[in-house]
């Protein structure tokens, strides 16, 4: 991978700035400047609504969890193939505001643009565009447009549009639109999918304007879900609200509603339009309540006003950065990359307990908006230490979809337990190609892992009793059923025909990662049941009844834990990825033309790919990172040396993991190289596909690369450990984490690692064999390095 790619945007640690508007950069920049609060997502498109074609732009507005379904067309469907698709639906657009400046329509493609900048202010959570526009008649206007998707108000986004005539006085006319003639760009954003959604998918139930407001309600054709949206407006001359009865003129067509208003502006006078936008759906309330909810939300937002919402946004962001920020001294480009990544993860994750996190967040249509294991293995671990409440809400989403997972397990022939879908929005399996989808059973163990990590780091025993235990038991049950004690493997427990994380080795027997994670899932299942027996028998009784579960089942779980099979290569003393891995043909990259190398599935038959001994992404190595306490450093080093030769890193989920493991075994320089590739991967668009949306997993992986990699932090068996190191390129770095209610700051320089309690009571951790306990705020420990 190219690490020398030139930065696309100027290096500014807290900002991302576009200095010039260019059509050819538009599609990518729409993702860079996408805003979201985990519920509403909106792409960084312009208020002027330029007519971009399918290759240069995509207007996109999404609501987490709101999807459209179509009947999936299969050439050859097998039993259990999902019949209905789920695609995050592109919803009506309300950002459009066209402005006539004394009779001339503002467009950056007419007249001339000076002093242009569009900046994502990551510290404040605001997107701001500034420019001076000279019309063809020579009228100069200063324009400043700010936009935010509110973290304080889940359903609200706001645009503040300010114009100041610089060398003329005249009429300023705003035409603020609600555009419902929208559709997904499936052919472009999900090219391998042949079922859509194509065309307009929302059937309009109502579209109307009234005074300063517009309102729309529509129901999807396939999933039969109803959504509603609307806008409210206020205009100011200077700081004075323009309060004229006849200010707004509404017009509605079949697919759109436009509100227009005209005000006189004197030279040098600023006219401001504040546009408040609200989205909601029937996933949150009965259909009959949608309209009154939208109206009330808009009234409340108007009442609060833009300045107040902006202030609340800042406050929210301050509290986020207070815990989540990672400071790097000595490399501003990487610092900017880290901020960008953390900012987008914050935006991506659902925070209402009913929604998850798409692999692309809410920044685009890529992967149909589906939630994968990316959430649990990459993003959730970051949130566990920085925003535990948000981590819990993502786990709630999985808890809330247990019923669908139970049904899925039955389809797969498991009489008990739950099998989570490989990709989904509504909790049902949406993967249409089972070798790369449903066969990734490891999703069950990944969810159980994330849950166990949450419980260890927060000590939230109530959550275990209320919801967690049920997830652990139900996932464990599937592991206890999927395999067998195979005679040909000395009676060891084998799991056949699964796909591990690595998507180039498919339907394999005894995938090392899967067997390891399954074993740990079962182990946690056993421990949980024993814990409940002792400490919460009433909870266990409830689960026994609810799940038709008997404690005796854990006898089999224990036997599997003790007898799990792992493929092992005696000669190399490594764990091959699966039973057949060492038999596969060595990969010869020179035979693959460079332009096809990163796109194997697009250019080669799956069987050609699967018969080679190479790997798309971190697989066995990931298991060793997560459970490093179960392996010796020497063992990890041997495996790392082997896998780094055969891994192509064709998935964005790979390099960050290799970087962490490299640090674990003392290959700090290599760890740093991997880290540098991950840290600016999206910001510099290494994969040339950023237009389709962010790579949320890798973004979170860069936080892990610093904290778990360079600082060597792990929480295993309820013990917090560090093994601090610093890349030679840096002067110092620091981060904070929440552990059992205590906020700890870790600052690492070339000479020492300093651990300080910022908030909370006490904390214990280990560095090598040293046990350290800090007591009370301000207490600190310094370790020489
Ligand atoms: C990766 C998966 C990942 C998915 C979504 C695929 O290319 O191989 O591991 O879950 O992308 O990010």
UniProtKB/TrEMBL annotation:
Glycoside hydrolase family 65 C-terminal domain location: 713-774
Gene Ontology BP, a term: carbohydrate metabolic process
Species of origin: Blautia argi
Key words of the record: Glycosyltransferase, Hydrolase, Transferase
Gene3D superfamilies assigned to the protein according to its UniProt record, in alphabetical order: 1.50.10.10, Glycoside hydrolase, family 65, N-terminal domain, Maltose phosphorylase, domain 3
Sequence positions that bind substrate: 373-374, 616-617
Residues of the Glycoside hydrolase family 65 central catalytic domain: 340-704
Protein's name in the database: Glycoside hydrolase family 65 protein
Upper lineage: Bacteria, Bacillati, Bacillota, Clostridia, Lachnospirales
PANTHER family the UniProt entry points to: GLYCOSYL HYDROLASE-RELATED, PROTEIN-GLUCOSYLGALACTOSYLHYDROXYLYSINE GLUCOSIDASE
Active-site residues from the entry: 503 (proton donor)
Domain of life: Bacteria
Domain (Glycoside hydrolase family 65 N-terminal): residue spans on this chain: 17-281
One Pfam family recorded for the sequence: Glyco_hydro_65N
Family of the protein in this entry: Belongs to the glycosyl hydrolase 65 family.
């Amino acid at each position: 991978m190219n690490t020398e790619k030139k930065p696309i945007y100027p290096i500014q640690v807290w900002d991302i700035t576009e200095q010039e508007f260019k059509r050819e950069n538009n599609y990518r920049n729409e993702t860079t400047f996408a805003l979201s609060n985990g519920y509403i997502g909106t792409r960084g498109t312009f208020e002027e609504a330029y007519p971009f074609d399918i290759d240069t732009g995509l207007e996109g507005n999404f609501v987490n969890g709101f999807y459209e379904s179509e009947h999936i067309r299969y050439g050859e469907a097998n039993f259990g193939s999902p019949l209905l698709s789920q695609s995050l639906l592109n919803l009506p657009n309300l950002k459009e505001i066209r402005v006539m400046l004394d009779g001339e329509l503002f467009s950056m493609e007419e007249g001339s643009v000076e002093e242009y900048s569009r900046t994502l202010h990551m510290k404040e959570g605001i997107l701001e565009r500034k420019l001076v526009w000279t019309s063809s008649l020579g009228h100069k206007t200063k324009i400043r447009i700010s936009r935010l998707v509110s973290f304080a108000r889940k359903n609200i986004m706001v645009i503040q549009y300010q114009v100041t005539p610089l060398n003329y006085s005249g009429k300023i006319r705003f035409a603020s639109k609600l555009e419902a003639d929208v559709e997904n760009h499936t052919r472009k954003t999900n090219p391998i999918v042949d079922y859509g959604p194509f065309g307009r998918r929302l059937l309009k139930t109502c579209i109307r304007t009234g005074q300063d407001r517009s309102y729309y309600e529509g129901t999807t054709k396939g999933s039969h879900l109803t959504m509603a949206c609307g806008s409210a407006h206020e205009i100011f001359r200077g700081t004075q609200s323009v309060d004229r009865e006849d200010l707004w003129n509404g017009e509605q067509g079949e697919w759109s509603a436009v509100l227009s208003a005209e005000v006189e502006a004197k030279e040098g006078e600023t006219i401001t339009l504040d546009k408040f936008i609200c989205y909601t759906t029937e996933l949150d309330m009965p259909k009959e309540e949608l309209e009154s909810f939208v109206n009330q939300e808009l009234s409340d937002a108007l009442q609060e006003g833009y300045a107040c919402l902006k202030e609340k946004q800042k406050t929210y962001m301050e509290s986020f950065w207070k815990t989540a920020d990672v400071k790097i001294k000595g490399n501003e480009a990487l610092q900017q990359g880290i901020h960008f990544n953390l900012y987008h993860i914050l935006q991506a994750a659902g925070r209402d307990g009913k929604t998850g996190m798409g692999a692309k967040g809410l920044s685009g249509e890529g992967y149909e908006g589906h939630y994968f294991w990316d959430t649990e293995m990459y993003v959730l671990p970051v949130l566990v230490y920085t925003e535990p409440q948000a981590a819990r809400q993502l786990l709630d989403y999985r808890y809330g979809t247990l019923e669908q997972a139970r049904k899925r397990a039955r389809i797969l022939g498991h009489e008990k337990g739950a099998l989570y879908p490989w990709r989904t929005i509504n909790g049902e399996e949406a993967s249409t190609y089972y070798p790369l989808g449903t066969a990734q059973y490891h999703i069950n163990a990944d969810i159980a892992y994330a849950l166990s990590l949450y419980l260890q780091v927060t000590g939230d025993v109530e959550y275990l009793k209320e919801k967690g235990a049920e997830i652990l038991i139900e996932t464990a049950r599937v592991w206890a059923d999927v395999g067998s004690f195979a005679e040909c493997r000395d009676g060891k427990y084998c799991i056949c025909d699964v796909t591990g994380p690595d998507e180039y080795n498919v339907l394999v027997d005894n995938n090392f990662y899967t067997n390891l994670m399954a074993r740990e899932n079962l182990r946690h299942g056993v421990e949980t049941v024993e814990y409940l027996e002792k400490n919460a028998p009433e909870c266990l009784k409830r689960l026994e009844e609810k799940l038709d579960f008997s404690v005796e089942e854990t006898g089999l779980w224990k036997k599997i834990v003790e007898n799990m099979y792992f493929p092992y290569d005696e000669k190399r003393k490594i764990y091959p990825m699966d039973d057949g891995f060492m038999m596969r043909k060595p990969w010869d990259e020179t035979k693959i033309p460079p332009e096809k190398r990163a796109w194997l599935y697009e250019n080669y038959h799956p069987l050609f790919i699967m018969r080679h001994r190479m790997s798309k992404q971190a697989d066995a190595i990931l298991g060793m990172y997560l459970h490093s306490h179960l392996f010796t450093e020497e063992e990890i080093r041997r495996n790392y040396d082997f896998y780094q030769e055969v891994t192509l890193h064709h998935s964005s989920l790979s390099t960050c993991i290799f970087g962490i493991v490299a640090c674990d075994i003392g290959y700090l320089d290599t760890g740093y190289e991997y880290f540098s590739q991950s840290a600016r991967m999206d910001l510099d668009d290494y994969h040339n596909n950023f237009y389709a949306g962010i790579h949320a997993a890798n973004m979170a992986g860069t936080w892990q690369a610093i904290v778990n990699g360079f600082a060597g932090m792990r929480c295993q068996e309820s013990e917090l450990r560090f093994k601090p190191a610093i890349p030679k390129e840096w002067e110092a770095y620091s981060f904070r984490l929440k552990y059992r209610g205590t906020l700890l700051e870790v600052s690492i320089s070339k000479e020492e690692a300093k651990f300080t309690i910022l908030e909370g009571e006490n904390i214990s951790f280990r560095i090598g064999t040293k046990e350290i306990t800090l007591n009370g705020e301000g207490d600190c420990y310094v370790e020489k390095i």
